[in-house]
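Record type: monomer structure entry
Structure origin: computed from sequence
Chain ID: A
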Amino acid sequence: MKPIANIWQHPRTSVAGLLISIATISGVLAQQGVTLGKAGSGTVVSLAGALATAVLGLLAKDPGQSGPQQSPAKSSSASSSTAKLGAWMLIALLLPLPWLEGCSGKSVAQDIVNWTPSLESAVATVDSTASLLAPADAPVFTAATSGFDAASSLLVAQARAYLANPTASALTQLQAQVVALQQQVNAALLSASRIVDAASQQHAIAALQAVATIVSAILSLVQSISSKAQVAQMAARSTVKLSAVAPYLDRSRAVQLVAAHYAEPAAAAEAQVARAEQAERQAGF
């Protein structure tokens, strides 16, 4: 009977534990391709996991901030309960996050397609950046980014093709194209880093930041539906590594972009960005 008594004595922590269980089970089911039906543009499983995480966030309010002063014993108990709840919240933050859940190929393809407007906008910004650079730097930047339009358009087309017909051959084409665009972006970042004029360099790298973030997100999505052997083949085609361009990327801007795209808190977006980078580094990108 003690577990039942604990539920009544520590309701907030018990509810947090239940929500953690729901979120964890949802992640496992998603990894196995179990959806339990559609819910809007997503699945019942993803909706349950998202709701559990959201409600868990509401429980983070610190108890005991208002009301009559508590006795030392009760205050100690409340502090202990709050500490336990904080631990639950940390666990929740470390759970698999939206673009790394190992979702079905179709849902990943849809997520990639959902990035399309942001990718097209970012590439358009890159196209117009040359006019902001010093005359000597503009041709160098233009040459380094000349293939962005064609490569990004092809990636979007292949993502849509895979969404319509998720075959092995369509996935192979998607894998090859996301690596091709990632390599173009990385090479352009290295080229921009060598621009001598400080203002030109700042404009160039800032314009490339958004494209780099979106391509990294798409690469992580493709990784999540690829086998280890396929990821190894993708990484083998990656000659300009993330470690070479990381010093020129602004993590805070990447977090802002991801948070806005997924309509989520900055803390969750920061965890996503960090996990995506770690997965790519471990894979050899």
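Annotation 1: Residues 61-68, 90-102 have pLDDT under 50 and may be disordered.
Annotation 2: The radius of gyration is 23 Å.
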